[in-house]
Amino acid sequence: xxxxxxxxxxxxxxxAKKAVxxxxxRANNANILAISSQKGxxxxxxVEFNIPKAYSSYxxxxxxxxxxxxxIPLPNALHKKWVVEAALNGKHILCEKPxxxxxxxxxxxxxxxxxxxxxxxxxxxxxxxxxxxxxxxIINSGEIGTVKQMNSAFTYLLDLTAKNIRLNAQLGGGSLxxxxxxxxxxxxxxxxxxxxxxxxxxxxxEESQVDLTVQGTMTFPDQVIATFSSSLEQxxxxxxxxxxxxxxxxxxxxxxxxxxxxxxxxxxxxxxGTREENFVADQxxxxxxxxSNAILKEENLNESNQHTLKNMRVMDACFRSxxxxxxxxxx
Length: 331
Hints:
Pfam families: GFO_IDH_MocA (PF01408), GFO_IDH_MocA_C3 (PF22725). The chain is an alpha/beta fold.
């Protein structure tokens, strides 16, 4: 039986070099076999990370019979095209978030993957850190009572004068696509519900026409409310809190604990006092091992794919709300 998955990477993007390629090399069931770039320097990256093969086009990599799975860190607007191409070439796909520009694109991508018998997963690496499993355990224990609200924020400071794909509307730039998707994903995952409606307000840059900041409110069944904030122009924050009738849980490094050596901190506040729980994990490695294992064991990833679709539908509603400047239903 095959023991490991051979990976290829489409594009030598920063996130690939800083996080995902090193994670593949750390994983116990994965090998990095090839990298390709149509604009960058694949040979230089191949030498830097000791990658056996370097291709000057994505097509060359996708037709390599030795490659089992590909990681796609391309700009958001290119995800659909290259996910479809990878699927048609029989490659399993780990695609950077957000999976697509809208839910229609995501549905079409997943349909092709299903038709071609390949696995697809959206690269929300944060979910593989054990702190989130612990949050659900505490909620289910009843310690913080009935959950009434969740607040999530992911913000950072981007150089708004530099050339950056995050400031390119045609490539799917903006804070909602870049970091707001994490906030929404975490809310749906922790609450295990879908919102009925959303209302968003934002700061749209006049020159680039991308959203620099978005603040949103979601209404859920049972009078549960969630808020989120995403920004490319605010002091760095990546946390969420879950508030119940008896207490609350705060995750201080919700999405990028890897920037703190993989350490996540969970704070529980109730009438009985405050306590902290610390967790250390390699979330990028865990993501690679999870997906590689799903391929090796032919596991069903339908639940993950359904979460991708739900997340995109909420994001669709957020963009409609920003445009219409009113609360809209999640379709």
